[in-house]
Design goal:
This protein is of the alpha+beta class. α3 crosses α4 (148-159) and α4 (148-159) packs across α5 (165-175). Mean pLDDT is 75; it is low at 1-116.
Length: 858
């Protein structure tokens, strides 16, 4: 990515940023939290039980199906000083005992190991106590440290491992980042602690949620309280208010259309009808409304024309629910002021609606009475009424996964009830129903007037047919997760509770925010000053299609979830931000990537699986350069903040920070040099100077300053920003700058060996890169350094050209060619194979160029 220039400086063109993309094969551990993270309650699957409602719930297709639950009802009104018990299950219990395939065992044997299979992830607290004893016993010299061979014996003995030499060696190398050949107990514990902490932070970062703030706020056509917000299959929001006004909004909160229902009915009335609730019947293109006149009305959702209604309800339908239960079958449910759950079972929905449409009209709408519906019109309907709560029903819903109705009220002793639809049917009650049905038919034939009030008589479910949850101050709203198999409730006390649906006992308590139910961690809290939504909340609804939360007050507000668009949905993106650097580590067989977001990630090379990651390596500044030390155990990164940092990158521990004296200019390139048994870290950047830091274990300062600048560098060095640096044994160093100059240095004396100035090719006539003379990458062809008759240095640039230089005799250009014939791209990265016979180049338009037979380039 082009660096962010400081104020007053010219913005220069730079290479396009590529993303390293990888495909991660499916794994049994894909959705499991890392072993180093704290264990949570839920593992992503429904809780198994010997008697689940899904197996024992009642059938909805026809009456007469048997249901039997164990009766469970316990108080769960917590005392003021009583803390709810947390039940935890480890997400990785039993991994060691899980049978492994040959491929899995092969991955275990690799030094890097696979994510979730490394030895350090199998070490628990008990193992640590045992390891400490083995450490102390094995330390026969009294130095407090162990060698590699002794460490292998300690790990095998304490963990009971037989053949894990490569893994144990890899663990030893990760801990011994300074390559001293011995490790201490304190170093071992520090490594484990830091790795666990970084994995926990990484896990939590992946689950971060954010909304676009402030909320989008629009005025509404509603003059009364909005009762409910719902969404259609295409993501359109639907809102309805008490006066019958219905509005449709798109995902950008633009009002698409609005209409006032029941307008014709209210013309002839002294008092207008009031709406109590609304649900969508999308399969049949209908809107279902409950009214204060004890009616359930059906409207066409496309034309808003009245279709039919069920009238003569015994009580006012406060809350409605609709659920299809099969092909052309459904449940229409409503809760009333008496605390009853009323269920209309429809076995042929299309035919039934057409039959109701043909009934005589009342106030301009076809009307059928509940009495006729309850007495089984043509065998297509059935009516059931359960007495469930001792207060108004505030919410009810049917869930096919557990084949049950969940309802709630403000009454503490019946706050939340999970119950069957039909109830248990025993032989005696079944015979009684058959007898009553025969009597009714005989009476109809004889013209005897029936006692029509029997259908409104309420019944109570058997204790085995329902589970009652007692909650302090009752429950106003709830939801059920089929994936986690839990129920979430909210009430007047502003506390969110999570329940096990099979055991009426509280599991977790939350305050209001956005929470991760698996980890019991708060993911997001939106403050009023941020969202700027004013007024009392009347209704809210989360739209899974558009990933946005609609909130109704006196205005309509929308909080849209921040979702970063993916250019290729079928490709896994390695980083959320552009990838700046990428290196392969042969010691651990891992790939390390760094991003503009200052994140460092480790990947298993053979499988592409993530191994480890840590973030904020350079704070909020991007990582712009990266190199390994000579052992491959430490990572050196350079950032836009002008600093270099040395890492034990296997656990995210910053070992040392390298800072320039009085400059925070961006670091553009870094190299690691060994010369005369001394080790150095050399960096270049926008300060136009060469900064050299010694790398020695004798310097115990965490912050280290560079050595004195070379005199030749200060007087005759680069006059423009340095973009690349490369080193070659025994003592050569090459640097390139934005103005196209290449300087080769003698590192022993600090003097300039030669100046190389690239010239524009004679046949170059492209103007797309005019003004860009930068040389962004240098590579020494090390096997050729001692051969003075061929090219030893390759430079990418200027203007998309590749130059091959002989650095001897003052510098001679041996060859040059265009990397891109159309002149619209330049080379941004280069690499050569070990014997320098092939040159690999990546350009700014995403092309990979391979130059073969490099031996012929003289």
């Amino acid at each position: 990515m082009p660096p962010v220039r400081k104020p007053g400086r010219i913005i220069r063109p730079a290479s396009a940023t590529a993303k390293l993309e990888s495909y991660i094969p499916p794994s049994v551990l894909d959705d499991v939290r890392p072993a180093t993270a704290a264990a949570g309650l839920f593992t992503g699957e429904g809780q198994s039980t010997s008697s689940s409602r899904g197996a024992q719930g009642s059938s909805l297709t026809r009456p007469g199906t048997q249901s039997a639950w164990a009766s469970r009802s316990r108080d769960d009104i917590p005392k003021p000083d009583e803390q709810p018990r947390r039940l935890t299950l480890s997400c990785v219990d039993g991994l060691a005992e899980r049978p492994e395939t040959a491929a899995a065992r092969a991955r275990l044997a690799t030094p890097g190991g696979s994510f979730g299979y490394k030895i350090e992830e199998k070490i628990n607290l008990e193992h640590l106590h045992s390891l400490k004893k083995y450490f102390e016993a094995a330390d026969t010299t009294g130095s407090g440290t162990l060698s590699l061979e002794t460490f292998k014996e300690v790990i095998r003995s304490s963990l009971g491992l037989k053949k894990s030499d490569e893994q144990i060696t890899a663990l030893f190398m990760k801990i011994d980042s300074l390559s001293e050949g011995r490790i201490a107990w304190d170093e071992f514990c520090t490594y484990m602690q830091l790795e666990y902490a970084e994995k926990e932070d990484s896990y939590l970062r992946q689950k971060q949620v954010s909304f676009q703030l402030p909320a989008t706020i629009e005025s509404t056509p509603h003059r009364e309280t909005i009762l409910r917000i719902n969404n259609m299959s295409d993501g359109i929001f639907v809102a309805v208010s008490q006066d019958g006004t219905i509005s449709f909004w798109n995902s950008q909160l633009e009002l698409k259309r609005t209409r006032t229902l029941m307008a014709e009915q209210n013309v002839t009335r002294q008092k207008p009808k009031w709406i109590t609730d609304m649900v969508l019947m999308q399969q049949y293109n209908k809107i279902i409304l409950g009214t204060g006149d004890r009616e359930i009305q059906f409207y066409e959702s496309s034309t808003f024309e009245p279709y039919c209604q069920v009238s003569g309800l015994e009580t006012v339908p406060l809350k409605l629910a609709y659920n299809p239960t099969g092909y052309d079958e459904c449940l229409i449910m409503y809760g009333d002021v008496d605390g009853c759950i009323n269920i209309i079972v429809v076995y042929a929905t299309g035919e039934t609606l057409r039959t109701w449409k043909k009934m005589p009209k009342t106030d301009g709408i076809a009307s059928v009475t509940l009495e006729k519906v309850a007495h089984n019109m043509n065998g297509l309907t059935k009516f059931i009424r359960w007495k469930v709560h001792e207060d108004w029903v505030l919410e009810l819903r049917y869930f096919e996964e557990i084949r049950s109705i969940i309802s709630c009220s403000n009454h503490e002793n019946t706050a939340l009830v999970i119950g069957s639809t039909m109830g248990s049917t025993h032989v005696d009650s079944q015979l009684k129903e058959i007898k009553e049905s025969l009597n009714e038919r005989n009476n109809e034939r004889k013209g005897i007037k029936l006692n029509q009030s029997s259908y409104i008589q309420t019944r109570r479910r058997m204790e085995s047919d329902q589970t009652v949850f007692k909650v302090y101050k009752g429950v106003k709203t709830f939801d059920y997760s089929k994936d986690k198999n839990i129920i979430v409730t909210g009430g007047m006390d502003r506390i969110v509770r999570i329940w096990n649906p099979y055991v009426p006992r509280l599991v977790i308590v939350f305050k209001l925010s956005v929470w991760d139910i698996k980890d019991q961690t708060c993911m997001l809290t939106i403050r009023p000053k941020s969202h700027k939504i004013r007024g009392d909340i009347q209704a809210c609804h989360y739209n899974r299609v558009s990933r946005s939360l609609a909130i109704a007050t006196d205005l309509m507000a929308l909080l849209s979830q921040r979702v970063k668009p993916q250019q290729h949905a079928d490709i896994v993106i390695t980083h959320k931000e552009p990838v700046q650097c990428c290196k392969y580590n042969p010691s651990f067989k891992q790939v390390v990537t760094c991003s503009e977001g200052s994140a460092v990630k480790l990947w298993e090379f053979e499988t592409g699986k993530p191994v480890f990651e840590f973030s904020q390596a350079h704070g909020d500044s991007a990582i712009t350069a990266m190199i390994f030390d000579n052992t491959g155990r430490r990572l050196i990164t350079g950032g836009r903040d002008g600093k270099l940092k040395i890492w034990n990158y296997n656990n995210g521990h910053c070992l040392k920070t390298l800072e320039k004296e009085n400059s925070n200019e961006e670091v553009t390139s870094v190299t690691y040099v060994e010369m005369n048994r001394n080790r150095y870290i050399v960096s270049v950047g926008w300060d136009r100077r060469i900064n050299i830091f010694t790398d020695t274990s004798e310097d115990f300062h965490h912050v280290q300053k560079p050595l004195a600048k070379w005199t030749d560098d200060l007087q005759n060095g680069h006059k423009e920003d340095i973009l690349s640096v490369a080193s070659c044994e025994p003592n050569l160093l090459a640097t390139s700058s934005y103005d196209g100059e290449v300087i080769v240095w003698n590192m022993i004396s600090g003097h300039i060996y030669c100046h190389l100035l690239s010239r524009q090719p004679v046949d170059y006539n492209h103007t797309s890169l005019d003004g860009d003379n930068s040389i962004c990458k240098l590579i020494f062809l090390e096997p050729r350094v001692n051969n003075k008759q061929c090219a030893q240095l390759v430079a990418s640039g200027p203007r998309g050209c590749i130059h091959f230089w002989n650095i001897y005799h003052g510098g001679t250009l041996y060859s040059q060619f265009h990397s891109c014939r159309d002149g619209k791209a330049s080379v941004s990265a280069m690499a050569v194979n070990k014997d320098c016979t092939m040159l690999f180049m990546a350009d700014t338009i995403g092309m990979l160029i391979i130059l073969n037979q490099l031996i012929n380039v003289q």
